[in-house]
Amino acid sequence: MSFKFTVSDVIPATPRAVYDAWLDSRKHAAMTGAKAKASAKPGGTWSAADAYCWGVNLELVPGKKIVQSWRSSDFAAEDPDSKIAVTLKASPGGAKVILLHSAIPDSQAESGYKDGWFDFYFNPMKAYFGAQRKKPAARRKPAARRAVKK
Asked: Given a cut of 70, is residue 28 above it in pLDDT?
């Protein structure tokens, strides 16, 4: 027997920006604050949270959906992989991220993974993408003030 749960939150970014960051090693690490190795290819392997969790990309729909096998260092060797399905939708305030974590082994039923998605993903992602939005755009001189070389 296994169990599942769904968590969601709104991240201040576009669905495509979240998708791209999730599947890019450098950006994934920046948005979660922990070492990550990502792949943007179906069948590609990934690890995150300083190698606490890892798996394989099972299905990728650019800007819309990421499905990955998922296991953590807390799983017993005989435990099968669990699975995450991350659905991304445009929403007021950014991207609504809906994460279904399924096929979690009974041995992990009290693991705290549900809270972990907020503590180690959604909350750091909100800070990361919020800071991205606050960065000032490069300033250009108004056209009338640009020097014209003769």
From this structure: yes
pLDDT > 70? residue 56 = yes
Q: What is the mean pLDDT of the chain?
A: 91
Just give the CATH number of 2-135: 3.30.530.20
Contact status, residue 65 vs residue 85, Cβ threshold 8 Å:
yes
In sequence order, what are the beta bridge partners of 96? 10, 89
Mean pLDDT, to the nearest integer, of 86-101? 97
Q: How far apart are CA 96 and CA 12, in angstroms?
A: 9
Q: Which strands make up the sheet holding 45-48, listed edge to edge?
A: 2-11, 94-105, 82-91, 65-72, 53-61, 45-48
pTM as predicted: 0.87
What residue ranges do the domains of the chain occupy? 2-135
Beta strands in the chain, from DSSP E residues, in sequence order: 2-11, 45-48, 53-61, 65-72, 82-91, 94-105
